[in-house]
Design brief:
The protein is of the alpha/beta class. The protein has a domain of 180 residues: Alpha/beta knot, CATH 3.40.1280. It contains 10 helices and 10 strands. The strands form 3 sheets. Strands 7-6-5-9-8-10 form a 6-stranded parallel beta sheet, sandwiched between helices. Strands 1-2 form a two-stranded antiparallel sheet.
Length: 367
């Protein structure tokens, strides 16, 4: 008997369908099954379809949320400006208007003075940390493995790290290593970066800490050693990589190849993650800062890790990037660099911050 042939043979028998990159609504890229063979879409599994639909919903919600927040900020600034102008116009006399303007200037001077005082206290804490704080390194040597939108995301994560560190009562001695090339260009575009009290090294951490290599510990979710406590004699390295899970295991491999220690946070001892235990750079750093403050890993994890990653229902935020995590951190970081010399102006400081935020995002390809 002659065996019957399949009238529609697969163009790639035994092979997985090719993938193609698809730009999502939030500017990120995702991988979907590509068109194969004769131009018909390849068949996705149920789990793949569910994952794709979830990504699309998350991107749509994120875009809608960002647009709403932007509109609310704009409306709030406009409302306050309008109320001020109406109050000024309703003043019974020129003398009353001048008194109102004088009071407004006085209030602004007090606010500026308080900000200067807070900035001075922050600078003093950071200087003390440089003398004896826990050394934490952000490794920025992965720029060649990231797409432009991922480099932009990492740049924002670095901003969050600095903002969190500046507000901490016990800040870390924070280092940026491998701060050259594309990453060096991007961080230089951060408003006020030149004023940051932070160690900035173009060379790698191996060169920067050549005399104490035995104290280097790379923090990676793929490590076998679990970190029970933070050792002040150690230098903890956080990999500056936003890769959407394309480069799994790369930080652990780097540590092994370089002959340095590696460890992972004890997440599994305190909570069950709903998905991967891989966190963003700023989340890892903030967890470390919270642990230094409380000496309690569980408190640190629950303070920083979003409920949806802990498997809890009802989380409002579906974004792993820092943009969806406490927008106030970014606002605070930018506000601290607003020029306070114009003490007699009557303009809104919020507009200054918005302009700086727009400038930073525009330079990084964001609208």
């Amino acid at each position: 008997m002659i065996p019957r042939r399949n009238p529609n043979p697969s163009p790639n028998p035994g092979l997985l369908p090719r993938r193609r990159r698809v730009e999502m609504a939030d500017g990120t890229e995702s991988e979907q099954a590509a068109v194969v063979g004769d131009g018909n879409p390849s068949q996705l599994s149920k789990s793949a379809k569910k994952k794709l639909l979830k990504q699309e919903r998350q991107a749509a919600r994120k875009a809608e949320r960002k647009a709403g927040e932007k509109e609310r900020r704009r409306a709030d600034i406009e409302r306050r400006r309008r109320e001020w102008e109406e109050s000024l116009a309703a003043a019974p006399s020129q003398e009353a208007r001048e008194a109102m303007l004088a009071a407004r200037r006085e209030t602004r001077l007090e606010r500026v003075g308080k900000r200067v005082e807070e900035r001075g206290a922050r600078a003093e804490r950071l200087r003390r940390a440089a003398e004896g704080g826990q050394k934490v390194v952000l490794d920025l040597e992965f720029a060649d493995l990231m797409r432009p939108n991922e480099i932009h995301s990492l740049t924002q994560q670095i901003m969050y790290c600095y903002a969190v560190n500046g507000r901490s009562a016990t800040p870390a001695h924070l280092w940026l290593t491998g701060c050259s090339g594309e990453m060096g260009t991007q961080v230089q575009r951060i408003p006020g970066f030149d004023k940051w009290i932070i160690e900035k090294e173009a060379k790698s951490y191996l060169e920067a800490f050549a005399d104490c290599k035995e104290n280097l510990v790379y923090l990676t979710a793929d490590a076998e050693t679990v970190l029970d406590d933070l050792d002040m004699s150690k230098i903890y390295i956080i990999g500056g990589l936003v890769d959407r899970n394309r480069w799994k295991g790369i930080t652990q491999k780097k540590a092994v190849d370089q002959g340095i220690q590696s460890a992972k946070l004890p997440i599994g001892n305190y909570l069950k993650m709903s998905s991967s235990q891989v966190l963003t750079v700023n989340q890892v750093f903030e967890i470390m800062q919270k642990f230094v403050e409380t000496k309690d890993w569980k408190t640190a994890f629950f303070h920083v890790i979003p409920p949806r990653k802990r498997g809890e229902a009802g989380a409002a935020n579906d974004d792993d990037s820092p943009e969806g995590a406490a927008n106030g951190d970014l606002d605070k970081c930018l506000e601290e660099e607003v020029d306070d010399d114009d003490d007699d102006g009557d303009g809104d400081e919020e507009a200054d911050v918005a302009n700086k935020r727009h400038c930073f995002r525009s330079e990084n390809g964001k609208s």
